[in-house]
Amino acid sequence: MYNQYNFNYLKQKISANKYVLVDFYFESKLPFNDAAHAIAGESSIGTWTKIGGLTKKQYSLLAPKITKQNLSEKTVQIAYPLALFEFGNIPQFLSSIGGNIFSMKVVDQLRLLQIHFPNSYINSFPGPTHGIKGIRKLLKITNRPIIGSIVKPKVGFTAAEQADAAYQLWLNGVDVVKDDENLTSMSFNNFDQRATKMISNLKKAEQKTGLKKMAIINITAPYQEALRRAKLIKKLGGTCMMVDVVAMGMSAIQALRLEKLNLVMHGHRAGHSMFTRNEKHGMTMFAYAQLLRLAGIDQLHTGTIVGKMDGTKNEIQQIDTFLHSDYGKLKPVMPIASGGLHPALITDLVKYLGQDVIINFGGGIFGHPSGVAAGAQAAKAAVIAASHGQELSVAAKNNKHLAEALAYWSNKK
Ligand code: CAP
Ligand code: MG
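^ Those are the sequences you sent over. The predicted structure of the assembly is below.
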């Protein structure tokens, strides 16, 4: 056996509130049970050879238990005693369960599928500051999807051009306007200037429309600078900071949450496919979303099913259901559908994902043949019609911009 210990616990019951249960898929040339032991050992107390050191008492406190295995599906469930983990510390959790085991030569493929945390562990994290209810309260939108836009081109506008584009969007029906993931503070678009101009235009747009709006400004940078940018947003009267969660890392997400700035934290997940996309290796987006909810993300990109990004219907619906569900004392997280969306896709999108979602259009507004204002009005009309169960072709009879968008993009459906 690769591992000196016997972790088999298949026929015995464990008390789930004392363990973190982790479901893995794996492929290995070792016999199934040996490979499962190698994974359980390397992620907790074991190594590749026999070692001494642990008293019986420590062993029984810390030894993982293999509680389920399915040879045909190549899955195993490992129960890790809570004592293996530091409460409130996601980096430590990842160093164990998302650590060395992914590099072992004896395991060819390994995928972390899902984590079952007990409430005591979940509640050691603050979770979202605002959550779904808080975001809806800030925007005063109760009964329809929230309409969002990403200013396009991704990068290239000056701070003033960016803020002017946002203003147009807000005036023409968009609720929340965000930066793109690769826009931070550039030679041609300085963060401080952009934040100042965006929030000033946000206030003007709110006055003009009588509606609440949100500017989602990307603070992604080394931590101290990201924090400075978040504080600037707060000082200027903004309500939301955007973080690229993969690039910034769990430590930064947790730390920003613990600053108690009371800003909505928008999680852009650019790069997650580096570890979530291969169906046999890495971790699922579902497991990653579990960790981000603990860390304190308020709204998170989860995919569209119908748009340009990879992600199956089952997977995206599973993530969205989880984000809405009870999870210890942590608030629900608002899912964001984004990537390749345009009006013709919205009926299906709402059918799959429901009303409690932010629907984001970048190219699907900025690429409208009659311009940005027309694109925003078409997007809004599509979302409102779909959320009332109205056929888009019917809604388009009273909205020439929607009619034009449907005609323009219908062959891209
Ligand atoms: C969408 C987007 C977002 C993606 C990210 C982009 O723009 O701004 O970054 O939605 O994917 O750059 O592609 P478009 P996901 O509307 O023009 O496609 O939400 O799946 O993480
Ligand atoms: Mg983007």
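The mean pLDDT is 97. The longest helix spans residues 191-209.

Shout if you want it in another format.
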